[in-house]
Design a protein that fits this description.
Elements (H helix, E strand, L loop, with lengths): L1 E2 L3 H5 L4 H18 L6 E3 L16 H17 L3 E3 L2 H4 E2 L2 E2 L13 H15 L2
Parallel strand pairs: 1-2, 2-3
Antiparallel strand pairs: 4-5
Length: 123
């Protein structure tokens, strides 16, 4: 199971620790109901230009959440997949993969994302 979540929480001004708490609840439920499921947590994509109320960017919150997700994975022997680095340029989403809103991938971005995950399913 691949999980990539949290950007909407940040956009709605939830704290990073609240998002981490939600991940802990998800992981607990998955382990409880499907203990043999392999879980992969994906980093959030870079979001240089995405803002919340009064123009405050979520860029730093994305970085902080990615760091906390990586730590959570290490603590729980879960694979963390750093897709942030794959798509990041100068703190934001690389233009060649940006659909135009600084947040969502375009078709080329989705192909690259797909290809970056293949190594986890094509054994």
């Amino acid at each position: 199971m691949f999980i990539e979540a949290g950007i909407n929480d940040l956009l709605y001004e939830n704290d990073v620790e609240d998002v981490i708490h939600n991940f802990i609840k998800m992981l607990s439920k998955i382990h409880e109901q499907s203990p043999s499921t392999s879980v992969y947590i994906l980093s959030l994509f870079p979001t240089e230009n995405v803002t919340v109320n009064q123009g405050v960017t979520v860029k730093n919150k994305v970085k902080e959440l990615n760091t906390r997700l990586s730590e959570l994975c290490k603590e729980n022997s879960i694979t963390f997949v750093d897709t942030y680095s794959l798509f990041e340029k100068d703190g934001g989403l690389k233009p060649e993969y940006d659909c135009g809103d600084g947040l969502h991938l375009n078709a080329n971005g989705y192909f690259l994302w797909r290809d970056s995950l293949r190594k986890f399913v094509d054994h």
